[in-house]
From TrEMBL:
A Pfam family: Abi_alpha
Name assigned to this protein: Abi-alpha family protein
Organism phylogeny: Bacteria, Bacillati, Actinomycetota, Actinomycetes, Pseudonocardiales
Species: Amycolatopsis nalaikhensis
Amino acid sequence: MNAERPNGRGTGDEVADLARRAGQLAGWAARTGFALGRKLPGVETAERTVRQVEHQLLSELRRRLDEVDDPYHAALTAASAMNRPAVPGKVEATVTLVPARDNHAEPLRAAMAELLNHSIGFGRERAREYFYAIILRQLTPDEARILSALSDGSPFPAVDVVERTGLGGNGRVALRNASTVGKAAGVSLPDQVPGYVTRLIGLGLVDLDEEVPSLETQYEILLTDETVREAEKHVKRAKFVRRTIHISRLGAQFWQACDPSMA
């Protein structure tokens, strides 16, 4: 899986290089508030160019990561090779799979065997790189921007829009984890920020915490957000549950390993 390319550069080096270049664009745009300067002459055109390059880099990075150290990808490839008729005179690499059932390879079992084999040969650092690579593969460009905006440890306001019950409690949740962090990061899809934040929390990269009174102004701004206002229309009596989000311990470690400015 880690074979060298003909030009001498390893696939892992190429992936790392792509990650640095993609992360550098996302991190730079988030830190400088690039999207906020659209009114300046020429900035809108420049921003489109940055986003196009960023998209190309991240697409290529995702393709490379799909090919590197992916046990399921390896299992499927091997299963496909086993089920293809042999070509006379052509020598192909053989991969040992778990026993097949009814002459059909079982890629899920083979993928698990691949992971178990990795666990034997991996040291601490290699296991950490593999773990971070798996996380990186799951991030969208907008989520990378949000993580970059959170990377300095600053908290951002977050609110849930819930339906108030007759006893003053919380009922149905109409919107979860809306936040101003999307605008600060300059994301491409502002209406998807609640989903981005929820995914980042699910990945363990972001923590949800209690309301911070010093962010009162930002909470007020967040309540005027179009996504929040739209969710408010879908409940009879809206209640806003205030929280904050900040980068988690895992998120900080992950960012330190991937931070393009540290390359």
